Amino acid sequence: MCQKSASSFGFFSFRELTLEYTTVKGVPFLSFRNAFVYEDKAMRTEWEIERKFVVTFVPEGLLETRQSVTIRQGYISTDGERQIRILDEGGKYTMTISQGVGHKRQDTPIAISAEQFEQLWPLTQHMRVEKQRYRIGFFGHSLMLDVFAGHLEPLMMVEVEFDSAMNSRQFLPPDFAEFEVTHRREYQHVHLAKFGLPDSLALASCHY
After folding, report:
1. Looking at the 3D structure of the chain, how many domains does it have?
2. Could you give the residue numbers annotated as active site?
3. How does pLDDT run across 72-81, given as a tens digit for each residue?
């Protein structure tokens, strides 16, 4: 076993981050400990304010005329409310360090290449989310309607991002997505990736 600094990857920089590197039958494995992001000129930290809702039905014609984007999202490290995840959103690749869950979260996104994404993707095995995302205009807001695939089918959720807490509180969701799960841990993406469909999904489906 040996330790490598994050700078050996050449595309992101951390302080107080330890990478433990081992090989099992010639296959490399990396584990992350004490991940605290170091902010430099290439990185920025953002506050993300969002609300999440389970889609209880899809109105006729809502998705048929819209194009979707395929999203692959995987978690490299999870430590309480801190996660390191990688994302492929229709060919746009990022690594993000997130702190917090629920209504308000602190994100530090870092652009990575397709090659870097594919090198890291095996590290997310058993902690992945794959879905199709549709963007829908709704009274000045952009709804992100996600249709989950694989072990998370038939879950569908709507996410809405806001520029202020006040706008978030004033938002009224569409009638097809009134079951709010913003503060329910089992509907956080990291929990879905690790544990699959929530037991409460059946209750959401019977909400009406």
Report:
1. 1
2. 75
3. 999 999 987 8
Whether residue 24 contacts residue 12, with contact meaning beta carbons closer than 8 Å, is answered with no
Domain hosting 153: range is: 2-205
Could you tell me the CATH number of the domain that includes residue 198?
2.40.320.10
In 3D space, the residue among 124, 192, 195, 105 whose CA is nearest the CA of residue 157 turns out to be 192
**Quick check: helix, strand or coil at residue 198?**
coil
pTM, 2 dp:
0.77
Question: What phi and psi, each to the nearest 5 degrees, are found at residue 107?
Answer: -120, 140
CB–CB of 30/94 below 8 Å?
no
Residues 6+ apart with CB under 8 A from 27: none
User: What pLDDT is recorded for position 43?
Assistant: 59
Average pLDDT over every residue of 49-70: 95
What is the rounded average pLDDT of the residues 132-145? 96
